[in-house]
Amino acid sequence: MWQRRDFCKHLSTALVSVAAPAWAAEGKRLRVLAWPGYAEPEVLKRFEQRTGAQVALTVIDSDVDLWQKVNARQGGDFDVFAVNTAEIRRYVRQDLLAEIKPSLVPNLAKQLPRFRSGSAMAGLSVEGRRYGVPFTFAEMGLIYDRSRVPAAPDSIAALWDTRYRGRVIAYDGGTHNFSLAAQSLGLPTPFAIPASSWPAAVDRLIALRRNAGGFYTGPEESVALFKRRQAVLMLANFGRQQLLQLRAAGVDAAYAIPKEGALAWLDCWVVTRAAQDAQLAHAWINHVLEDEASRLLGSRQGLGNTTLESSDYRAEDPLIWLQPVESEERRNQLWARIISGDRASRVLAP
User: Domain check: are 171 and 198 in the same one?
Assistant: First the structure.
């Protein structure tokens, strides 16, 4: 969802920047909670060599899993974790996050201009306090099989195209799917559905359920479904990560960004309020902003990074950065009813 870079080049950079920190982490343990591919073995090993600390990595597979793990003991099981900007406010409300100290993350200066200001930055700060450092991102574009869809789909309406009935693969998640429905309905914002538009949004997702050949929660599952259902089109909730995996599985896959704009997520590193060593946690964040980790996000995962330009991710692409929605609980509750096969009248019943 690889190529090794020149070790000497990165080692020389490491020696100049952080090989000899003023503080010693020998014998310390950093507890990292992250998505697959965010802490590649060589990146992790280099951090341990530089700092003398041991990294305990826990990998999660959904926003729900992330929330449950962090919230279980008020963040006490982890020091640093990755979360998207739309979720940060939720963790702040629970008093789970510590403020970011920019002076401890000098590699912030390496970040591309659009990740230092602009719409991508919404959600990093709450009431003037900064809690996140942008790390990686992807847009939720459309993946299609070029051998069976000769012209690139230019609209999210393709997901509802009855010519593809049973051969569309979509994401199994209420929060994002209601945003998708709002987009398809032309609502002013996909993140705040007005009361009068809920019936139309529900109808839209019932129609998607009927047109789809399956729903997935993870990239690997999406590839298996795509091949098993002989699908021709998929909503890429994990972006080009899925494109890489489909191509590796032998599918002649291509990627398109719809004219309505693609929903896009920006994952950030945050430090827990319960961190055992906040300085070590900041050192981790600084470390993964270096070139090696940034390049690996693209070459192994197909993801965008926030420090190096990529031809796959252009600043002019129409991206709609995720924001907090009016009610995650309601969206997920209604989606559970939709996916189970309920009619519109039952979905919206109290």
Answer: yes
Alpha carbons within 13 angstroms on the beta-carbon side of residue 106 total: 3
10-31 tens-digit pLDDT: 333 333 333 334 445 667 999 9
Q: Is residue 30 part of a domain?
A: yes
Q: How far is CA 48 from CA 19, 33, 281, 297, in A?
A: 11, 16, 12, 20
Tell me, yes or no, whether 55 and 124 share the same domain: yes
How does pLDDT run across 218-264, given as a tens digit for each residue?
Answer: 889 999 999 999 999 999 999 999 999 999 999 999 999 999 999 99
CATH of the domain at 113: 3.40.190.10
- Measured CA to CA in angstroms, residue 198 lies from 129, 224, 228, 292, 321 at distances of 34, 32, 33, 45, 22
Counting Cα atoms < 13 Å in the Cβ hemisphere of 290 gives 24
- pLDDT at position 45 over 50: yes
How many distinct helices (H) and strands (E) make up the chain? 12, 15
What CA–CA distance (Å, rounded) separates 288 from 294? 7
- Give domain status of residue 1, yes or no: no
Q: What digits encode the pLDDT tens for the residues 256-300?
A: 999 999 999 999 999 999 999 999 999 999 999 999 999 999 999
Nearest CA to 283 out of 35, 9, 30, 5 is that of 30
Q: Are 118 and 321 in contact (CB under 8 A)?
A: no
Residue whose entry in the numeric block shows the structure tokens 């970040």:
111
Are residues 43 and 189 both part of a single domain?
no
Strands 262-272 and 133-139: antiparallel
Task: Name the amino acid, one letter, at 192.
Answer: A
Q: Give the per-residue pLDDT at 114.
A: 87
Helices (H), the chain: 7-17, 41-51, 63-71, 85-93, 174-185, 198-211, 219-228, 240-248, 278-288, 291-301, 328-339, 344-347
CA distance 225 to 253: 14
